[in-house]
Write a structure and sequence with these properties.
homodimer; alpha/beta; five-stranded parallel β-sheet; 5 strands
């Protein structure tokens, strides 16, 4: 390698079209937002499995693989939540660029934060509102967090003492108060099939 | 209550073995470390293209797609470099978990930081030392950074006024002082073919 070899930088990456051609679907971000207990993670992992079996390249980002790793330095104050969602938005965009359908499942209560994640994905962003009434979520309380929040043991808990700003124009709404998991999954698969499948070459 | 105490772990239903079976290769991190001008990004993008054409799922993380996005809040002080590499290590680990060969091309001058990236990848980590003598790198100086560092216009520049800690037991060494780009690429492809290919089912 001589000096002159470096004067022209090799930057021709594999572009998204080529990746989509190989995978038979485009990459993009499915952003699940909703209250704690609405069913985001449950649906995200079930959808990941379903799509994988159908041949999609798909990966879930959620509190589990983010909060224990990349964002282990962050708490749950509004500032830290915003920074956490900013990071997730950037990573989801990288996965989309790499050709994946990236399912990001986070409460992500603030509209501005979700807007930032949308901008990071540069057009390949689908906001999915996983909706359930607070009373339903609180009744489920799968992690006992609402009980703790009501007892004052957790601060800044969404919909208790911190706001949840509902999506204004989501790409899709899945209401888990009125739909079963299986029905919700059917809605999601139909959406993905329509939004992400590329034509056979 | 620590930061991550109120997130519970929900397991991915698709495991790494299944992803490897689908892709016909395992996922993992190829971590390129070396001086500025050693050829890390050049080789990373060339390797990405070569592997993609061979059918691999592969993606490059480098300063370009990290520093402008996820780490846009960080500078180049030792503390910020460490935080940058920590984040990259966590993201590379997610890509590996998703079944990708993730090529991370960063100077990553500190041994402890690379060790943290290795831990994040939980065993799927291959340290690749892209080696070239400082005099060779400085002679190439593709971005004019060494000139600026020598003139005192850039602080904390690796190998000028900040240390580069060489890998002690790298998985692979590619010496770009003595090998052409094409030769270096051949060495890298041979390594990947041997380290990442899974048996046909």
């Amino acid at each position: 390698m001589t000096n002159s070899d470096n004067t022209t930088r090799i930057e021709h990456r594999i572009d998204t079209r080529e990746r989509a051609g190989k995978n038979r679907h485009s990459g993009g971000v499915l952003w699940f937002t909703g209250l704690s207990g609405a069913g985001k993670s449950t649906l995200a992992f079930a959808l990941e499995e379903r799509l994988f079996r159908m041949g999609y390249q798909v990966y879930v980002l959620d509190g589990d693989n983010i909060r224990h790793g990349l964002s282990s330095d962050l708490g749950f104050t509004p500032v830290d939540r915003t920074e956490n969602i900013r990071r997730v938005g950037e990573i989801a965009a990288l996965f989309a660029d790499a050709g994946f359908i990236c399912i990001a499942a986070f409460i992500s209560p603030y509209r501005d934060d979700r807007m930032a994640a949308r901008r990071a994905a540069m057009g390949n962003f689908h906001e999915v509102f996983i909706r359930a009434d607070l009373s339903v979520c609180e009744g489920r309380d799968p992690k006992g967090l609402y009980r703790k929040a009501r007892a004052g043991l957790i601060d800044n808990f969404t919909a208790i003492d911190d706001p949840y700003e509902e999506p204004e124009e989501p790409s899709l709404v899945v209401d888990t108060s009125s739909s079963t998991i299986e029905e919700s999954l059917g809605i999601l698969v139909a959406y993905v099939t329509s939004a992400f499948t590329v034509d056979a070459r």
